[in-house]
What does this fold into?
Amino acid sequence: MSASTRMSSRLAGWLPRIVVAPSLLVVIVTVYLFILWTGVISVTSSKFVPTYDFVGLEQYVRLWATPRWHTAVANLFIFSALFLALSTGLGLLMAILLDQNIRAEGALRAIYLYPMALSFIVTGTAWKWIMNPGLGVQKVVNDLGWTDFRFDWITNPDTAIYTVVVAGVWQSSGFAMAIFLAGLRGIDNSVIKAAQIEGASLPLIYRQIIIPMLRPAMLSVIVLLSYIAIKSFDLVLALTNGGPGTATELPSTFMFSATFRRNQMGVGAASAVMMLMTVAAIIVPYLYSELRSENNG
Amino acid sequence: MSRFIATALAATMLVPVAAHAEGQIEVLHHWVSQSEVDALNVIRKELEAKGFEWKDSAVGGMSGANAQQALRSRLTAGNPPGAMQFLGWEGVQWAEQGVVRDLNDLATAGGWREALAPQLLPFVTSGEAFIAAPINMHRQNWVWANRKLFDDAGVAVPKTWAELIETGKTLKEKGIVPVAMGDEPWQIGIIFDALLSDINGPEFYQKTAIDLDPEALGSPEMVKVFDMLREVRGLVDDNFVGRDWAVATGMVINGEAAMQFMGDWAKGEFLAKGLKPNQDFYCFATPGAVTSFQYLIDSFGMFTVSDETVQKAQVALAETIMDPKVQKGFNLIKGSIPARNDVSVDDFDDCAKLGYQERAAAIEKGSMQGAITHGFAAKPEFASVFSDVAAQFFVGKMSSEDAVKMLVSGIDNAR
It folds into this structure.
């Protein structure tokens, strides 16, 4: 009896490790090993196929001397900042409005969340037509009689990046809303009641009590949305295909074309490493501060 | 998403297949549209008549970039396909890696080098080795025009770029879009390539697009090219963003637009609507003092494999592709002209006949040159600089001088 019990208790101790081991191995190989490999490629002269001759930071110098890369980096910051701010802001606003015990909340929630069910390819293609001045919004309004109305951002290299923001926000703000809504439902009603008894107005309650209590939800939203922003390769591809010209190039589209279409694998790897460092520079301190304050709190 | 499909396809293709009695060859290519598949079937049937089986591995999308990725993973896994479709420098670059089979014996016995224009040889040979069998030749610098619109406006086929711009302005005053196109860099590149040679002559094209001579790249002649490109922009409507080339061709067919600059794959759209060359639509080369013929070819290279039945099938496939009869049958369907110079095009349409004649003249005058935009001039890392600069210039407000500076520094940076 005792032998079999010992056996099963030993198995129970090992089981989690055995179960986790394969997936851990896969993650180590497919994520960290390839990050390392990309780093190695970025300091070689690799062009068409990988070669392993060390050339130092030459590919990084080349990368930063490429005007298209500057466009891509500037676009990433414009896009990410606006996308994060607008998606989070709109998501929070929608969640608060939905949380007022309104009728048909379930239906409205589904409607707002629905864009998230579409792939970026579909969103991009649909918005490409909606924002084309000859087919979409501008044409409809012009045909209605307002002939001076202009909505041709997508044709202008200076404004085209904002069309990507519009499409991205449309798709993702419902998602942010869902997370905030879940967060709001998790807040104890007695806190709000107590504040009301103290005579606090509703906006004040939201500003001072509820929104600060949504911090964990805010963390999830920001981390998930920044990850969507960084990888928004397919949205750009479908919406503008990097155009007009190269005006809406993002680091991800730059990396893909350098590596796979332009024989510049070294430059592509260097740009991938730059992307990784950018993400790390933003996410790591944020995660650190959030997790630390959680421990303290 | 398409990358995922490519990877998935590459993964499924790793499964070994049972050898066919006579020998089977797997052909990796990126032709998936109906006319392309029909054209390939000409090769396939002839190969089957010789007793070899064609195993189709089509990886479409991204103008062949997906198929290239599939090939990379296959080669890395040590399991290359028997044959692969090559565009531009791909074949030569793989040959430099030592993975492509040398077909020199076949080429010498079959007189392939003599049957091809000398300008093609850099793309199908590597040193002494003959590495790829070219099946077809497209011309990139065509203008497709709606004849009725030209007649109604009382304009003729332009003989110079200045005339073309004037013609465009006349048409624009009548409310017609003079030039239909999209904002994709390669569509803009087609016009840029043509202007390089048409305005400054084929020697200038050689010096800039092929030799990458810094002096020629930064010369006042280059400024003229961008000036003319700016004039062309004035003939394009503002809704050109995101427009597919075939949609633009449709605008010319419907009479919404008068002209399109596009390779001869656009011809199929006209013919499919039952329109006749010279009666319903015009096809003419981009105008220049010396008419240029900017080509691109599709060729098939064979990889070094150990399986002897596959080796035999490779020989049979290469011979089939270079068979004049097959080249004729293939190109009648594909809309291009045979890569071989010695195949008669009597049964072809008028546009193909014109292209064939102009090719012969261009070979003599030295104005038959590879198209940069499709990867048949400078290597991709340089070709992409041309297309980046031309595209940014075209859609924005950059001055011609700034564009030239950007071109020179961009080429230097890619060296």
